[in-house]
Amino acid sequence: MARGTTPTRAPGRPRSSVDAEVFAATLSTVHELGYTRATVDRIAAAAGVAKTTIYRRWPSKGALITACLVDAFGPLPLKEGDSRAEIMATAIRYAAAKIGEPGIAAAFAGVFTDAIGDPGLREILSTQLQDPYRTVLQDALDEPEHRVLFFIDVVIGTLLHRMGMTGEPMVPTDVDALVEMILRELG
Amino acid sequence: MARGTTPTRAPGRPRSSVDAEVFAATLSTVHELGYTRATVDRIAAAAGVAKTTIYRRWPSKGALITACLVDAFGPLPLKEGDSRAEIMATAIRYAAAKIGEPGIAAAFAGVFTDAIGDPGLREILSTQLQDPYRTVLQDALDEPEHRVLFFIDVVIGTLLHRMGMTGEPMVPTDVDALVEMILRELG
């Protein structure tokens, strides 16, 4: 799209299709080059779109990466009638599988790195990425907000630390240990 | 110091003093500018040393940040005669306090971000930062390596995730919950 066009969409190219292309390009670029070198310029080139197309949708690299993570994680695969323990175990195993996908852990660690000094990005991360899971889990587990936030810190933090230290997803026996520890804590 | 000098030390300026200045400058620069913008150039300027002085000691920014974290964390304050539970509780509370100090979480998250795509840096992180604690804890807790690595993932990962999401250290009641959960897991 040309620079300076209005934010209406070009015919035949609905927003969702551009988003999907940009998200795929974002993850592959972060996976290949690392978060720091995965600039919006490079991501736009990999997606075959203009940089302005990206900035029209997401005001910063951090906002783009967060949106990409929201899209990649998607809704928790919870089933009607699951017990609290089943819900929690499903959520942990789902998070472990997602964090092992190419580019996800690098994008996550990178956006945290930027967020530590950027309150606006923390707000985006918290409201757009964490809150949807937090509210679903508060409701499904019948737990207060501070307990669900604690569980999210433990699960996501543990999985990301393992990826950061080893470059590999957590092995299944350790994911089992994490599930058991959290289920004991859930009570 | 001039470019191209041999790595012997200038008289009156022992290595430990330069290291201390560089480490202090590293943390304050990372705290102020964030990991990405805290380049070796800026860190050298803040420390009042030549960039070559830094590269003579640490071959890369990741190696410098890791050495800085090793220095900042220091030895665990374990006491003779502590029980396994006391040792673990001390280690967790010590980690929580350290990760709350200015620049530490930002440096940690940043080095992970770089390490995810850099096997050499992961090796440095693992051997220089993690292994000293791992071996002390394996011995003090009489636990196998994989269990101690799991505990480290949970404790450090949880504390860093909280810092990344909120920009604040974990509140004392949540650190208590973390200690209790881990002590139950330790058995």
The largest contact between protein chains, plus residue counts on each side, is: A-B, 45 and 45 residues
Given as residue ranges, the uncertain stretches of chain A (5+ residues, pLDDT < 50) are 1-13
Looking at how many chains there are and whether they match, the oligomeric state comes to homodimer
Strand content of chain A: under 5%
Largest sheet of chain A: none
- Give the % helix of chain A: over 70%
Mean pLDDT of chain A: 90
Secondary-structure element pattern of chain A, one letter each? HHHHHHHHH
Rg over alpha carbons of chain A: 18 Å
Describe the model.
Helices cover 72% and strands 0% of the residues of chain A. The termini of chain A are far apart. With 187 residues, chain A is an all-alpha fold. Chain A contains nine helices and no strands. In chain A, α5 packs parallel to α8 (145-166). The interface between A and B is large, with 45 and 45 residues.
